[in-house]
User: Fold this.
Amino acid sequence: MKFIFEFIDILTSNQKYNLFIIQILIIVMSLFELVSIISIAPFMTILTDPNLIFSNYYLYFFYDYFSFTNKNNFLISLALLVFSLFCISMIISMYTTWRLLKFSQRVGAEISISLFKHYLGQNWIFHSQNSSNDFSRKIFEEVKRLTGGIIQPLLNLNNKLILSVIMLVAIFIYNFSIALSSFIIFGTIYFVLFIFLRKKLFENSEKISYLNRNRYNILGEAFGGIKELLINKKSKIFVNEFIDSNIKFASTHSANQSFAQLPRYAIELIGIGSILLLTLYLLILNDSELNVLFTTLSIFALAGYKILPAFQQIFASIATIKGNLSAFYSINEELKTFYAKQKQKQDYEDNLSFNNSITLKEICFKYSGKKIKALNNITLEIKKSSKIGIVGKSGSGKSTLIDIISGLIENYDGKLLVDNIEIDFSNISFWKERISYIPQNIFLFDSTILENITFEKDISKIDEEKLNFSLSVSLSDEFVFSLPNKIQSHVGQGGVQLSGGQRQRIGIARALYLDKDIIIFDEATNSLDLETEKKIFKNIVSLSSNKTIIVVTHRLETLSSFDNIFFINNSEIQLSGKYNYLINNNESFRNLLIDKNGK
Ligand code: ADP
Ligand code: MG
Assistant:
């Protein structure tokens, strides 16, 4: 099975070490199980023929050495010895099982963490092309299938395989012909069943992955658009799809689970039959003596008692792994890229300065799958501490431009320079550090206003002066302090308990609190009324004179005091200059103004 190597490949060195320890434990455990079972044999033999104690050299040696005085005492001690062997064996088994379960859950947890980090580390383009429902599903469902459906069965398989091999070797040595015939009978049954079920198991596995994906998407979409669903009464469509996926999921999943258990019953039956057959064979055909018969039977019964469940578990493990393999493959690539990146990640030095300007040189960018460039040949300069406006019709490329300036998009043509140093993979994270960005849809998490602004749980770490400044500049203070719990009020998931304009003001307060060199507003004020918007920007311009401010807005008047305005039309900069200059010199710019005011 090729996948075992692929699996070991994604383990970290620490995980590999633990796996190795478990491997050793498994071997020790199997040996102990074997020894404890074998120890039954002399006990049974003596039980049927107590005189052996005196005729057998070794037995007599022990009898003599420990100065036993009668046979019964010797037998009782022997029984205790056998029993303690079983006890030790059981303790080792319990410990190994615990380590094994702990290991697989731990690996699962670590894989979830790595995947989460991996997705968070992807750039904006990746996220805009993939669904976050998919990420959640992989992080939870596929990893759960990986731990419960692949790692655990794999270790279990390994465990039982070693146990069976050791036991088989032992019973083959003990009685070759009986061992061989039982091995052939049971081996064939399992093998045939496996061949028949193999394809179905893997097919179902992929189906489970697919259905799971559906289930997550339906949930994500339904709850994501809950308001419209409630008003338009369209929840039924989602419910029906959800029912469909869930029912199919249940039947596919249970089918795979049953396939794994299927042979058990047949085998149990055949097991009992074989013991009866063996008894008859030994008794009638071989005409064995009673004590030989008794010992042989007990050995085989006990070995069978251990080996058959082991066989069953080997089968069930392989079936379960087959039935969940798709989960492994669905996250394998991502994990590999994550670890590879992790390895090559070097510690770059933060030698990025921002004292003079940001320069864009001949920037071109096209979204994959789009025919038209979103940005075409953009060259511009933004001086430190200046206040910059970006305007243009919707779809003209304003957000794309912002995304490039702020380092969200990386694979563009042309150059982004800061103080004449090109921004590349070595310094992009330092560049992002200097920027705070306020999008149109502010992301608020389900916590208090305070935490949403400061990202800080520990109140003692909050800079109160800065907080008050942020609240007043963003004009949030008034509404925040009118709430019953003031700044400690909860905003609800995604901020549903606030109005659009309140959310935007919290977003602005957050950006101000972050106190970065550069603050970018991408239509971040469009839910506010014109007066409020103007006031906020007036505040920001006068109170944050050392900050570089970049604002995308449709309300051109807001920008009347700004240092420079770039007017973007059809992916290109059509014109730039101060507000008055643009008004007086460009008709499309004037039209834009009329457009918006006429709205
Ligand atoms: P604006 O912010 O000026 O409204 P955008 O920069 O968002 O415009 O979009 C410019 C063009 O790029 C549009 O044609 C839009 O359809 C396209 N676009 C924007 N974002 C993406 C994306 N994530 N994937 C593909 N195309 C996009
Ligand atoms: Mg936009």
Summary: The beta strands are 357-365, 375-383, 387-392, 413-418, 421-422, 435-438, 518-522, 548-552, 564-569, 572-577.
